[in-house]
Amino acid sequence: MAKQQVTRRGLVKGAAAGAAVLAAPSVLRGSSRAQAGWTLAAAAEPYRGQSINCFFLERPGYKAAEAMIPAFEEITGITVNFEVTPYENSREKQVLDWTAQSGQYDVSLVDVVWIGEFAASGWLTPMETFFNDPALADPALDLPGFFPILLESFGTWDQKVYGLPFDNYSGLLYYNQAMLTAAGFTEPPKTWTELRDVYGPALTQGDKYAFALQSRRGETQSADSFMRMVWAFGGSLLNADFQPNLSSPESQAGLQFRQDLMQHMPTDIVEWDHDEAVQGLAQGRVAMITEWSSFYSTLADPAQSVITQDLRVALEPAGADGNPHPALGGFSLAVNAQVAPEKQAAAYLFIQWITSQEQAASYIQNGGVSGRTAVYQDPAIAQAFPYVQPLVESWTNYGNAVFRPRFPEWPQISEIIAQTGSEMMLGQVSIVDGAKAIDDQVAEILSSYNDGSRPKLQ
Predict the structure, then answer these.
(1) Which are the contacts of 327, defined by CB distance < 8 A and separation ≥ 6?
(2) Residue 30: what pLDDT?
(3) Residues 408, 401: Cα–Cα separation, whole Å
(4) Residues 145/377, Cβ–Cβ less than 8 Å
């Protein structure tokens, strides 16, 4: 282990109501530490000397946490180790740890699309276990201080909180203003159609391209590429009756648009993951990408990007209905239910601290993206990090909690979409036939819910 279709109104209301039944009022509202007499050092005293293992990714938000860990260790006497793993192997490694009951990781990493599987399998300890323990629960925790869409999507399953938002993502449009200016544009495209029909031909010249849509086979293909375009044009994986919906006119329009847009993307785009898309923009090869908020720190780093002076950030382009439908992603940190109680307590103290409002500014300054609302009201933070305005607007007005269904079967469905979606882009299967093939397989996977026991489209 190295040290190293839901409405926004309904979503916010549901998240707040769900949180309200999970924790004591002082934990929810964030009462005075002085009044409660609670300190992190005192809470950690029984666990001084403990060592906990965290599951991290090779992404900016985790490097930010790594920079902050020494401060936590000094206060608590708890040693925090972390294993850095590629995203592609991250779910499998954690599932193997649980099924083998080896207890390798005390702090679990939960992707938005894993929360159903991990929680339903009993692998995560409900956070109410710690919220209801006054010795562990910081009175300033303040659950409503998280953006509701993040706490609901990344941390909550079946009205229980299992994790606290940590590595928080919205899809944003990053662009090179110098390339746009040279092509005669003063601002980025407002709609996807404008990007394809107006900006695409003007910016795709020689070995330069207007756009890059990360599309490598895997979750990148199924979510960041496939579902991003389906949602933008009014489609969805499942309809309101829980039936496969990729053959609908709206879903077909999104998938056909993606095929048409490929003429303005690098020819090997089906091999591009996040790193390739970010580097394509950073090195001046492509003019625009739609990427996660967490990659701002990479693109703004002069050691990794030649466009830092020309880097701009905006909302993702609007879809068929005139509104943006930005991708939603991210991770929460949770406590492994299979490890010893003292490990669980130490793990919770770390999670509570690293995701706290008190540490939010430090997390951002070190390259992470906080899920706390109050920190983005700081004018100094907003001025220093230009992604703040579109990020907050996205999470507040446009983020969609069911961008990808979060029920336990998603990983299996994602593999099917990844394979057939890649074949679509490569021209090996038509849009119509590919969508039908996915619909048929999804129907089979979800057939056990035909008795009416289907999960909510959370």
Answers:
(1) 169, 170, 171, 223, 224, 227, 228, 231, 290, 292, 316, 403
(2) 45
(3) 15
(4) no
Do residues 186 and 178 lie in contact, with contact meaning Cβ atoms separated by under 8 Å? Answer: no
What Å distances lie between residue 206 and 16, 26, 185, 264, 286, CA to CA?
51, 61, 19, 11, 11
Cα angle 151, 152, 153; round to 5 = 95
Cα–Cα dist 398/212, whole Å:
22
Question: Using an 8 Å Cβ cutoff, are 221 and 418 in contact?
Answer: yes
Contact 63, 355 (CB under 8 A): no
Measuring CA to CA, which residue among 91, 90, 92, 52 is closest to residue 72? 52
Question: pTM for the complete prediction?
Answer: 0.86
The amino acid present at 66, given as its one-letter code, is: E
Q: For residue 88, what pLDDT is reported?
A: 85
CA distance 266 to 286: 8
For 15-106, strand residue ranges (E) read 51-57, 79-85
**pLDDT under 50: residue ranges of the chain:** 2-27, 29-35
Kindly state the DSSP code that residue 356 receives in the 8-state scheme. Answer: S
Distance CA 262, CA 256 (A): 10
Nearest to 89 by CA among 213, 2, 1, 219: 219
Contacts of 149 (CB under 8 A, 6+ apart): 8, 11, 12, 15, 328, 395, 399, 401
Q: How far apart are CA 431 and CA 226, in angstroms?
A: 12
Q: Dihedral through CA 409, CA 413, CA 414, CA 419, nearest 10?
A: 160
In angstroms, the CA 191 to CA 143 distance is 35
Topology (CATH level 3) of domain 8-169+328-398: D-Maltodextrin-Binding Protein; domain 2 (3.40.190)
